[in-house]
Amino acid sequence: MASQPEDKRANEIRRAMHEIRCELDDDVSQIKQSASTLTDWQYYIRHYPWACVGAAAAFGFLIVPRKLKVSNPYTDELLKLAKKKRLVINKADDDDEVKAGVVKTAFTFISGLAMRAAVAQVAQHLTSILNQDQGSRNHAGASDQTEASAPAAPSPYTKHFDRRF
């Protein structure tokens, strides 16, 4: 009779262990799902957008360096700043160099435009002169051909400007 209560007790233990194993499988799958959610940055953006904006602003504030304090260059202050390694020397010429750089850049740009316009104007003028010269020679050549059957001599400019590229 002692074996029946032991068998009954062993069966209860087996059943309890089986339930624990099933619960462990569910718990592991829940932990796995929770871990994947915790590592997904898009989840936080979707569910907590304002907190993400605040965190990004705080992070940006922390990584931007602070503005350097500029003071008058007295000897004792210079020594203090030199010891702190925060010594800043401002030159009045820096602003002039920046302005000169802007003026130089603007002048270079405008002079380049002017040169291109001048070259285009000269090329157009030369083309019109050469076209007029060719037109008068072709017209004179046509009247000569009707009077005399000798071929007209080609213009020296015709060879050069009639090339097709």
Helix share of residues? over 70%
Average pLDDT metric: 76
Which structural category fits the helices and strands?
mainly alpha
Q: Please compute the radius of gyration using only Cα atoms.
A: 46 Å
Beta content = under 5%
Q: Can you offer a commentary on this structure?
A:
This protein has six helices and no strands. The model has no long low-confidence stretch (mean pLDDT 76). The protein is mostly helical. The protein is elongated, with a radius of gyration of 46 Å.
Summarize the structure.
The chain is mainly alpha-helical and 165 residues long. The chain is built from six helices and no strands.
Q: What layout of secondary structure does this protein have?
A:
Blueprint: H1 3-38, H2 41-47, H3 49-63, H4 75-84, H5 93-147, H6 156-161
Helix pairs in contact: 2-3
List keywords for this structure.
mainly alpha
